[in-house]
Structures are given as structure tokens and as C-alpha cells.
Amino acid sequence: MSETAVTQQLAAWTVGMKFKDIPASVRAEGVRTFVNWLGCAVGGSDHETVDRALAVALLFTGPKRASVIGRKERLDELHAALINGISSHVLDYDDTHLKTIVHPAGPVASALLAVAEERGIRGKDFITALIAGVEVECRIANSVYPDHYDRGWHITGTAGVFGAAAAVGKLLKLNKQQMTWAFGLAATQSSGLREMFGTMTKSFHPGRAAQNGAMAAFLAKANYDSSERGIEAPRGFANVLSTKQDYNEILGKLGEVWEAGLNTYKPYACGIVIHPTIDGCQQLKEKLGSRVKQIKSVELTTHPLVLELTGKRTPRTGLEGKFSVYHSAATALLRGDGSPTAFTDEAVRNKAIIALRDKVNAKADASVHEDAVHITVTFEDGAVEKLHVEHAIGSLHKPLSDEAITEKFTRQSDPILGEKATRKLIDTAWKVADLGDVGIVARASRKK
After folding, report:
1. pLDDT for residue 2
2. Quick check: 314 pLDDT over 90?
3. Under CATH, which number does the domain 272-389 receive?
4. Best label site of 15, 28, 125, 380, fewest CB within 10 Å?
5. pTM
6. How far apart are CA 345 and CA 356, in angstroms?
7. What is the CATH number of domain 6-267+400-444?
């Protein structure tokens, strides 16, 4: 393996990968990834963040060939990729590659469906491109994580642009040289700051990664060149944006070990590191019943990353609430809720939730796994209840079933598209790999 030709070798693999090369289990995970992404894109489509972004996109759109998921509007492919990437991530309900906290589908699927809609793309080719994009994205993320993330980069945006370029490049049938250029073009557009968490701009990152990655592929198709070492060069992506560069994570056992097969799906609409706390607090609500109103204090012992990412003590908006382990614990204990309704402006300003939130304390312990939490509840009468969550629902140890993903999709889509249209869309999405034209999925996702 040559560390001076990482970009070229990755490009060669991406171009050469075929549907038959993908293990059946990874293909199935690719379909699950797509279905979960689509449900989240519909679910987030009526958020005010999307309203504002779409109003701007409509000022500049080119030919309206691509659907805006969950809406009536159509845009050009690049702006549709942007808006659908925003809507799929705005609720923080999307998929997660747990090794890097990347949300793979936002950049990849948002770009891919927008480009595929009017091109008569077969389902098998679509899923091949989707899996190629997710694999590229996650492997590049692996190569720089955690140092890159610790420096303040939002890895979904920074690695996601490569995934979108790979996926769209597959659809456009780029050759090795063109795919190499596409990765260079992606590298120079890699961006996204963790400072934006808790604001509308966080969801802009996967949207922009989708848009920029697609643009990289289109430019490369036109033989617009770039550095052929965009990832590994001394002034390339990995060396400029990270103190860690492990290129074996990109090329090692490529096509043998599949990161795309390790995707997970959120049962709760917030930062993934809060999920053990919500899981445990929901269990305690079921057990305690009305005694929840007699709680004196709640003590959480969590991995340090939980407080680093979600330590907002007094969230002011629903989006900020998604990054407050304190709000999440209180809402789960009082309402048993971790869905999007737990993270609205109303919820973070609710007096009862605030009163309980103020009784929640959290401390970091590096010996606690990121997927675990210790919860100690003390009552006014001095009684104590303890619970340890070893692995949260939705983790690799407790993955969501296909039925659970369908139920999650239904809860998000029914209020927006209606029950009949939702059922048709779900059924079509699960069959995506067998479709003769995946454009029917995009068209079925639009509000009539």
C-alpha cells in the first residue's frame, strides 16, 4: 500500500466496485440506511430551518428536475441535494456510524437521489453508489478520528463531501482519473464546524456536503482537474485538518471489511451520546410511575464526550435541547419522550421539565463506555433508585429492527404526507434495490 497514492487507490476501488462485490448483509444495510434517511428527510421537511433555506434556494435554482422531499417544490439537483441534506439532519434523528459519530446518509443519499431522479437509474446501481459513498465517507472519517473531531470539525460535513462525490461519481460513471479529481475537489470543499451545534447551521453541514460532493463529481465529469493527492498530500485534507493520519483505515481490507455494514439508526432525535441516558430514564419512568414527581436529584455518570457534546445546562431552543443531556433526562423521566416532540421550543421552556432539569447533575468518567450510563435517582424521602444502561437501544448491540425503522418512518411521515402516501412511500423505499427507476421514490416523497 502506497501512502503517496491514497486518493488514486481509493478512486480506483470506487470506480471498479460492482453490486455483485457487495455482501448480501451489506446490501441489506444499504437499504436500511436509505429507508431511514428518507423517513428523516420527510420528517424534517416542515421544520422552520428548511422553510428558510428553501426560500433562499428558490431564488437561485436552475432547471427544476429534483424533488424536495416532503414538499411540493422542485429544484435543480444541487440545490435539492442541499435542502434534502438539511431536512434529513435537522431533527438529529438520522443514522450514525458509531466509530466516528458520522451521519453517513445525509451527504450521500441527499446528493444521490437528487441526481438520480431524472436519469432513469436502476435500483441496483443506486444502492451500489450509495454503499460506495458511505464506505468512502466512513473510511476517510476513520483515518482522522478522533483528532480531527477534537479540533472542532464536524466530521459529517468534512468526510461527507467525499461520500457524496463518490456516490454521484458512480452514477455519472467517472473513470479512475475523474474520480481522483472528484476526491480532490471534495477535499478542497471539506468543511463544517462543531461550534454550530445547537443551531440551524448544524444541519447545513450535511446539506452542503451533499451539494459540494455532487458538484465535485459533475466538475470531474467535465475533466475539471484537481490535485491527485487531495487526501494524503502534505497540504491535503488529512494533514491540514487533523493531527492523525492513518491511511490504513482508508485502504486496509477495502472491499473485504465493510464500514457501510456498521451503520446504526437513532431511536431518539438528539445527539447520539445522550441515547443511553434517555433509554435509562424511560425505563425508570415506567418503573417509578407517579414517584417521578417526588424526585430530589438525578445523578448521571457518563463518558466525558457526553458533557463535551451535550453539556448545555439551560437550552433556549429545541435545537439546543438536542445537545442538553439535562433536558433529555428530564423529558424522558417526565414524558417518556425522546422523539422530535421532546426537542421543541415548547419542551425546553416547559416549567415542569425545567424544574426537573435543574435537579439533574452529570459527571464524566472515562471508564464509562460512550454507549453506557449510570443513573442514580434520589427521592425526597431519602429512597434511592439506581440503573445502569450498558448498551442503548439503536446501538450495534441493540439495533433497530426493520419493523422499528418502518414505525419511525411512519411517525414522521404520516403528519406530512398522510397515511396512504406514507404507506406507498415506505413500501417503495424498502424495494429500492429492485426498482427499474429509483426516480419513483423521489416523486412519491413529494407532498401533493
Report:
1. 59
2. yes
3. 3.30.1330.120
4. 380
5. 0.97
6. 17
7. 1.10.4100.10
